[in-house]
Structures are given as structure tokens and as C-alpha cells.
Amino acid sequence: MATQLLCMCCGAQPQPQPQAAPFMRFPFWNSVHPKNPTSVVRVQAEAADMNMNSIPHVLSVAGSDSGGGAGIQADLKTCAARRVYCSTVITAVTAQNTAGVQGLNILPEDFVADQLHSVLSDMHVHVVKTGMLPSLNIVKVLCQTLRKFPIKALVVDPVMISTSGDVLVGPSVLAGFLEELLPMTDIVTPNIKEASVLLGGVPLKSVSDMRTAAKLIHDLGPRNVLVKGGDLPNSLDAIDVFFDGEEFYELCSPRVNTRNSHGTGCTLASCIAAELAKGSSMLSAVKSSCRLNRFNPNDLLLYAVTDSAMNRKWGRSIAEAVKAAVEGGATIVQLREKDAETRDFLEAAKVCLEICHSYGVPLLINDRIDVALACDADGVHVGQSDMPARLARTLLGPEKIIGVSCKTPEQAHQAWIDGADYIGCGGVYPTNTKANNRTIGLEGLKEVCLASTLPVVAIGGIGLSNAREVMKLGAPNLNGVAVVSALFDRECILTETRNLHALVS
Ligand SMILES: Nc1ncnc2c1ncn2[C@@H]1O[C@H](COP(=O)(O)OP(=O)(O)O)[C@@H](O)[C@H]1O
Ligand SMILES: Cc1ncc(COP(=O)(O)O)c(N)n1
Ligand SMILES: [Mg+2]
């Protein structure tokens, strides 16, 4: 059946290409734009052409969450964010919201089998990711189908109880996991409660228990195990334990103080599936999904911001200034080069990136997203009148660090919504590096810190004389101080940075 589709840009009708015989069922996919072959139609044709095997493809076999936070909905969003195609086989429909699960309707296993067959017999699926498998028969049907259709990897999130505490999958399913599914699994990702159920009820109370559990679950057949520690009591960080049969890895990220963690497990498992579909190794898929390579708020402790006018005044190159700052103990560097030529700036940024990385220090670029992308910097810092953080996130992808300058709780809230990683808050004290900049004082800083969900670095007129009083404020989320003149408008950057580092740590 040929659907009449028109080009989105000019309304022209695509012309079918007769030589594209194997795909005749989908004439639109095999058509080129009558006027411009590289147009929207071609892009859509390529994106839609799963048979070409070129588009990374995850099949999510999971339940629907009407609230959109977990299940199929989380999987679709995660795969889209990681730029991977996601098809879906729905196993159950839940009436669910942030408060809990109000209703559950399990689909008949025959219909789950039909959905599996429709997708797997037609498209080239690289990775299958499972979430809620609510009946033993559904587990059996899935295993039977997977034996018929070879895939690159099987990711199993053994969903049993929702974050809200509602039972999503009864104990009868356990036999299917142990006997059939786990032995064919490439990675299983239980949370601590699920790990305990898989092991017959042993409680997990510490990271050491999680390691033992990972080893025991590995003995049940899956090639890799990730025990997630989001719900581990009394732990400051969120720690997940990964075991590949030989080595243990503790993947540690700062715990976000929130009760809104519904869907975290589904998101993590589909992220791993998406990275595997793109061709990553298991370890790097897991690391990049646990965001190990990303931002650590402790890096904000001593944040050095370069200034071209000061470097000129003291006859230093940007690279010389940056080297002295990181040697002295700067924990993150931002290049703020307002008047450099683009090409010179790019070359300098590449050199600075090498210097910073040799000290394990992240490098951010002020405002210039193009330069950050071109030199593959760790991220950007944007002001309220620069590129909006939401667009910066779209342009830079999920991995890069994004900071936003904020003076008010409202701006801090917006930065969080827009997907930023931290906020720079100030000017705390009067400064001459920014003309007409309103000073918010320690009170203003405290107000923003209290309201912020993101880590905060204080900025504006901070140096040796007042850095300690800023840190002593003890405001929640305040992770450090950002400094311009007190480092770069001085004769010896190295000494100043060392002294300041001693003061704030
Ligand atoms: N409050 C939190 N702060 C930071 N990371 C978290 C938090 N809660 C969970 N995570 C992370 O989210 C992922 C999912 O873990 P978890 O919530 O334990 O799984 P599930 O959603 O299956 O219960 C893990 O990487 C875990 O470390
Ligand atoms: C349909 C469905 N699938 C999975 C989960 C588990 O997600 P979480 O454990 O993060 O609440 C859920 N709540 N709903
Ligand atoms: Mg969770």
C-alpha cells in the first residue's frame, strides 16, 4: 500500500525508484526528491530504512507507563536522546503516575509474540532491551523468539517493583528469569531489591554486599552484571557495581537529592542498550550510561576563568596562563576570550585542552559553542544573553558540561530545566571584569544556592581576601569559587592559585 506523502519542505511528490526492488513495500523510503536528492525526503528515507542495517536500533520489550517517566516511554526518550532508533513491544499497560501504580493490564503472551515477530522479522534490530516482563509465559515467548532471531546483545532490566513500591511483576516470573532469560543475557541491571530477589532474598546493605551479589548473579548465566545502588541506604554517592566476570568496577556519581527517581533504572538500561547498538564495548556503554566521564560537582572547587586583557597586560599567552593555573591547583578552567580571532582562539583552546587533560582538569569554553565543538572541549559556560542552555544542550549532546550564569532563583530553576550541569552565581562582590554587573552579595548567593537543584560556583570579585568567607557561608549546593583577576591579574599565577587552593580546600 503506497501512502501519498509530500515533501515537508516544498510539498513536492517523491518519485519512486524502480531499481529499489527489495523495498517495494515502502515506496516512500526508496524515493528521492524530484528536485533535490539531498533534501528532507532523502534524510527521512535513510532514517526510516532499517533494512539498510546502518541505523543503530534498539527493540524495547517493556510496559507502558501512562505517566511517561518509566517503561516504554522512558526507553523511547532515552534512545532518541542517544540518537538510536527504538521499536517497541508492549507487554503491559499501567495506569501510573509519580505517586504510584493505580492499575495494570497484562497483554496476552500471543499478542506479545505477534509484536515481537512483526518487528524482528522485518527490521534489523541490534539490541533487545527488556523492562517489565509481567508473566512467565511472556518471558518464555520472548526467549523462544530471541532464539529464532539473532541479535548483537540482550540487555535485561529485571523490573519487579516500581520506585513507588508497587509490585509490577509477581514471583512466578522468577523461574523464567533463572532458567531461560538470564543464561542468554549480555547484561542484567538489577537494583538492590531486584538483586536480592534474584538471589532468593538475601538483603543488600553495602557496596561490599553489592559486589558479592554481582558475582553470584553472574553465576546465574548473564555475561555482565550491573547492580544499581540508587536505593542503597546511607550512601552519599550513587554507586553502581559492574562485574564482567573478571573485574569489578564501582561507578560512582554524586547523589542528586531528590525523590523523583522514578524511571532511572529504565533510562539507564536503555542508555546501555543504545550505546551497545552504536557499537560500544560493554564497559564503555556502561560507563557512558552511568555518566562516569562527565561532570563532577567537586571540580567547581577552584574554577579559573581566563581573561584576554589580563594576559595581554602581563605579556602571557592563554596557554601559559592556563598551565600555571592548573599547576597551582585550579580544578576546572574556563577560557573567556572575548576579543580573540576565531582561528587563534581555536588553536589556543586545543593547546589548553591538552594541558588541562594532562592534569585531569576539565576545560570549558565561554559562550563559543562552535569553538567548544571544534576542539572537543569538555563543555561550555553560557550567560543569560548567550545561546540558551537548552539549545546548547541540543547542540552539544548529553555528555558535555554546561554551566549557566544565574543571579536569581528563577534563572537557576530554568538552568536546571534546560539541562545545565551547574550554575555560576554572582557577582558576589563588585568587580571590574564585568561592566554594569549587578552585585548580589552573600545574601543573594545564599538565596540562589538554597533554591538551586544544580551545584553552584560563586563568582565576582572573589580572591584571597574573601574566598574563605564565601565558602564559610556553608550554603547548600555551593561547591566552590570562580576567580578571574585574583589569579590572572597577578604577577605569579602559580603562587596565587596555590594560595587560593589552600584557602578553599
Ligand atoms: N538520587 C540519585 N542520584 C544520582 N543517581 C541516582 C539516584 N538514584 C538513582 N541513581 C542512579 O540511577 C541509576 C538507576 O538506579 P536505581 O534507581 O537504583 O534503579 P531502579 O530505577 O531500577 O530502582 C543508577 O545508575 C543509580 O546510581
Ligand atoms: C511500566 C513500568 N516499567 C518499569 C517501571 C520501573 O521503573 P522504576 O523502578 O524506575 O519506577 C515502572 N515503574 N513502570
Ligand atoms: Mg530508580
From TrEMBL:
Reaction catalysis annotation: 2-[(2R,5Z)-2-carboxy-4-methylthiazol-5(2H)-ylidene]ethyl phosphate + 4-amino-2-methyl-5-(diphosphooxymethyl)pyrimidine + 2 H(+) = thiamine phosphate + CO2 + diphosphate; 2-(2-carboxy-4-methylthiazol-5-yl)ethyl phosphate + 4-amino-2-methyl-5-(diphosphooxymethyl)pyrimidine + 2 H(+) = thiamine phosphate + CO2 + diphosphate; 4-methyl-5-(2-phosphooxyethyl)-thiazole + 4-amino-2-methyl-5-(diphosphooxymethyl)pyrimidine + H(+) = thiamine phosphate + diphosphate; 4-amino-5-hydroxymethyl-2-methylpyrimidine + ATP = 4-amino-2-methyl-5-(phosphooxymethyl)pyrimidine + ADP + H(+)
Cellular-component GO terms for this entry: chloroplast
EC number of the protein:
2.5.1.3, 2.7.1.49
EC class of the enzyme, as a word: transferase
- What InterPro entries does the record point to? Aldolase_TIM, HMP/HMP-P_kinase_dom, PM/HMP-P_kinase-1, Ribokinase-like, ThiamineP_synth_sf, ThiamineP_synth_TenI, TMP_synthase
Can you tell which superkingdom this protein's organism belongs to? Eukaryota
> What are the recorded GO MF terms, alphabetically?
ATP binding; hydroxymethylpyrimidine kinase activity; metal ion binding; phosphomethylpyrimidine kinase activity; thiamine-phosphate diphosphorylase activity
The subcellular location is:
Plastid, Chloroplast
Q: What is its main location?
A: plastid
Tell me which residues make up the Pyridoxamine kinase/Phosphomethylpyrimidine kinase domain: 65-289
Q: Which cofactor does it need?
A: Mg(2+)
Q: Which Gene3D superfamilies match?
A: 3.40.1190.20, Aldolase class I
The keyword Nucleotide-binding appears for this protein: yes
Q: Where is the Thiamine phosphate synthase/TenI domain?
A: 302-487
* Pathway in which the depicted protein is active: Cofactor biosynthesis; thiamine diphosphate biosynthesis; 4-amino-2-methyl-5-diphosphomethylpyrimidine from 5-amino-1-(5-phospho-D-ribosyl)imidazole: step 2/3; Cofactor biosynthesis; thiamine diphosphate biosynthesis; thiamine phosphate from 4-amino-2-methyl-5-diphosphomethylpyrimidine and 4-methyl-5-(2-phosphoethyl)-thiazole: step 1/1
Protein's UniProt keywords contain Acyltransferase: no
Q: Name one GO biological process term.
A: thiamine biosynthetic process
Keyword annotations for this protein?
ATP-binding, Chloroplast, Kinase, Magnesium, Metal-binding, Multifunctional enzyme, Nucleotide-binding, Plastid, Thiamine biosynthesis, Transferase, Transit peptide
Q: Which NCBIfam families match?
A: HMP-P_kinase, thiE
Role this protein plays: Essential for thiamine biosynthesis. Bifunctional enzyme that catalyzes the phosphorylation of hydroxymethylpyrimidine phosphate (HMP-P) to HMP-PP and condenses 4-methyl-5-(beta-hydroxyethyl)thiazole monophosphate (THZ-P) and 2-methyl-4-amino-5-hydroxymethyl pyrimidine pyrophosphate (HMP-PP) to form thiamine monophosphate (TMP).
Q: Which family does it belong to?
A: Belongs to the thiamine-phosphate synthase family.
Name of the protein in question? Thiamine biosynthetic bifunctional enzyme TH1, chloroplastic isoform C
- Please name the taxonomic classification of the source: Eukaryota, Viridiplantae, Streptophyta, Embryophyta, Tracheophyta
